[in-house]
Design goal:
This protein is an all-alpha fold. Helix content is 93%, strand content 0%. It contains one helix and no strands.
Length: 29
């Protein structure tokens, strides 16, 4: 149950953290 709950929370948070990550990756590249 914990794993599913954590996954759901991560999935909801992933999109919000995706834009910045992409920008960081582009800069890192």
């Amino acid at each position: 149950y914990l794993s599913m709950h954590m996954l759901a929370e991560k999935v909801s948070f992933v999109p919000i953290s995706t834009p910045p990550v992409l920008s960081m990756q582009e800069h890192d590249d």
